[in-house]
Structures are given as C-alpha cells and as structure tokens.
C-alpha cells in the first residue's frame, strides 16, 4: 500500500475492499493513459472505467497527477530490475534492457514523468525522489561489480550513456529501439580500456 | 513568416500589422509558457498578454498546440547552430553547446516538444519534421569533417551521446548541466581511437 495511512478510507486489511478499489482504479488509469494520453485523462473517466464512485477517487487521490504518481510508485516497487550479480557486463546490459522495457510498456513514459513531477507545484520533490531511487539501483549495481575488483563507470555515465538515450528514443518513437539496442548501449559504455575486465580497481 | 499564407489575415507586407501581431503573440506565448508551464497556457491568456483580440489569435493559430508549434518553427529558423567549419572537435562541441542553450532557454523544452508533436493527433508528422531538421544539421557537420578526411561518428551516435543526455538533463533539471558539460560530451564521443585526428577515412 503506497497511499499514506490517513488517506486510506475503509478497511486497511490487505486484500480488502480498499485494495480492490486501488487495483481497479490503477488499472483504469493505466488503460486510459494508454488510450488517450496522460493529458486527457480525467478523474470521472477513471472512476467510470473502474466502476468506482468518483467521490471515492477524488477523496483518495485528489488529482489526476496524484493518481498517476501513485500508480508510478506502485509500479516502481513491484516491477524491479534484475538483482545485480556482480558480473558488470551482464548486470549493466540487464539493467538497460529492464529500463527500456519500463519506458516502453503502455504509459511508461507518462508514468515516469508523473513520478518525476507528481505535483506541478512541487516538481523538485518528485524529481529528487525519482533520481534517488534510480541512483540507489545504479549505485548498488556498480558497487557489487567494484567489490569484485572491476573498475566501474560512474552513476552519471550510466545515466548519460544508457538511461538518457533510451528515454529520448522512447519519447520520440525512434525506430529500432529494442532490447538489443539497449544492451549495445551498455556494451558500448564498457568498451573502453578503463573498464576492461581484469583491470584492477585503483584508488 | 511561417504561418501558411491562407491563414494570414491582413497585410502580408513584412513589418506590417500582421508581423507585429505575430511578434507580440509569440512573445506572450513564450512568457506564459515560462511562467505557467505549457499545460496551463490558454489562448485567451495569450491574447490578453499580447494586447490582441482573442478572435485574431484563434483564427490565426487555432489551438495552443498550433501556436506553440509556430513559435518553435520560427525559433528554429532564426536561431541556428554555428556554421560547421570542418574542424570536427570544435564543430561538435559548438553544436552541443548550442543544443544545450536551445533546450535551456525559457520554454526551450516545451517548444522542442511542441515542435515534435504540434498536433496530438498527428504526432508522427511533427516528429518526422523535427528529426529531419536535426538530422540535416548533424549530417552537414559530419559531412564537412569527413570531406577533410576525418573518420566521423554516425548521426545516431551524436543523438545518443550528445542530444539525448542534454535533453534528459534539462528535462529533469539535473544540476551542473552547463556549456562545459555539453562540450565534454562531444569530446568524450571523439575520445575513441577510431575518431583520433589524422586517422584516414576508410571505405
């Protein structure tokens, strides 16, 4: 459950009515974002699609932006990238493939944006949360490989060389942006004398 | 004048009333995008800020999306990247610095998006136009250096390694995204044995 406790009406028992309402509303919001685009989704339309009273949706989520941010949070918590193993090349390629799949699935970019800016008046807060979460995962992956003695790229290099081009390519629907492309971006980043396997970490 | 001739009322003489209206409306739209964000700009607000009758604005530009796309087109035609000289390192660094300045100026990202998708129902058309225009400029820069015998990166490498990270960093307000950073992205792309100066082009 991602909603703050004081915003959850009804029973808090997992699997209860509250959880069913959340699941139905999240599913309806996702479908409508895919069908109409995030800009055209309204709270009454989500309520109608979910078969839920609009008052319930307004009371629990407040605004469309708040609802999409909640969907994004739940997605982010339930759909995680592969656990890093310490094998840098495969971990980074797997992370790139996962990030592309995350952006590419229905509504992916809309939810990524919503997560970054759940509230237009509090953009920095959402941004900081999102970057923190991305950073934690990238850092964990790099730390695991570094423990094994690999010289690893920086978090910023992973963002510039893998995340940013995948984001740009999905946003602008550039053809041939597939899993092989994502993995190649990871391989390309590591195709540098500094990162060759067997090179001992220094400093 | 970027508006289609059949949509321009009044005199077509450059410097005439029509041009003054266009300039005032474009300036008002830019200011409001910066102050409110593109999602909150309305045609009546633009008209009021520009001191123009709302009917004129609706008749000439139709929708906010159409107006922002027109502003983007004019910006794109009047604010061009530096002419390539054939010196690859400086040309690419200069292009990167220009692209960052273009994204970073007030409303830059909003107008870039509007240009890519001037009409939500015709996203592909705007996208194709924008990528074509970017591609033409990048290709010209690379061709000029290739004429001088340099082995040059591909257009796609320039997009993935320079344009995409700058776009991502501006969209998500990542700190320290300045001209030096943009130039370093260009230098980093060319920091590969394939692209060292003096290496003869093959094939």
Automatic annotation (TrEMBL), chains A, B:
PROSITE patterns: HTH_TETR_2 (PS50977). Residues 42-61 bind DNA. The keyword Secreted does not apply. GO terms for molecular function: DNA-binding transcription factor activity; transcription cis-regulatory region binding. Keywords: DNA-binding, Transcription, Transcription regulation. InterPro entries: Homeodomain-like_sf (IPR009057), HTH-type_TetR-like_transc_reg (IPR050109), HTH_TetR (IPR001647), Tet_transcr_reg_TetR-rel_C_sf (IPR036271), TetR_C (IPR011075). Residues 19-79 form the HTH tetR-type domain. This is TetR family transcriptional regulator. It comes from Embleya scabrispora.
């Amino acid at each position: 459950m991602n909603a703050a406790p004081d915003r959850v009406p009804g029973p808090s028992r997992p699997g209860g009515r509250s959880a069913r309402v959340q699941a139905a509303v999240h599913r309806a919001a996702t479908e409508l974002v895919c069908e109409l685009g995030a800009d055209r989704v309204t709270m009454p339309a989500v309520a109608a699609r979910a078969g839920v009273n609009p008052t319930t949706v307004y009371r629990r989520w407040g605004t469309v932006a708040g609802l999409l941010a909640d969907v994004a949070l739940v997605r982010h918590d339930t759909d995680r990238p592969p656990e890093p193993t310490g094998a840098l090349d495969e971990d980074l390629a797997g992370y790139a493939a996962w990030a592309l799949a995350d952006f590419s699935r229905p509504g992916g970019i809309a939810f990524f944006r919503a997560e970054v800016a759940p509230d237009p008046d509090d953009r920095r807060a959402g941004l900081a949360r999102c970057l923190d979460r991305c950073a934690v995962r990238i850092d964990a992956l790099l730390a695991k490989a570094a423990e094994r003695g690999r010289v690893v790229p920086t978090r910023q290099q992973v963002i510039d060389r893998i995340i940013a081009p995948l984001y740009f390519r999905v946003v602008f629907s550039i053809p041939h942006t597939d899993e092989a492309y994502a993995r190649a971006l990871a391989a390309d980043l590591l195709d540098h004398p500094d990162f060759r396997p067997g090179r001992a970490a220094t400093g």
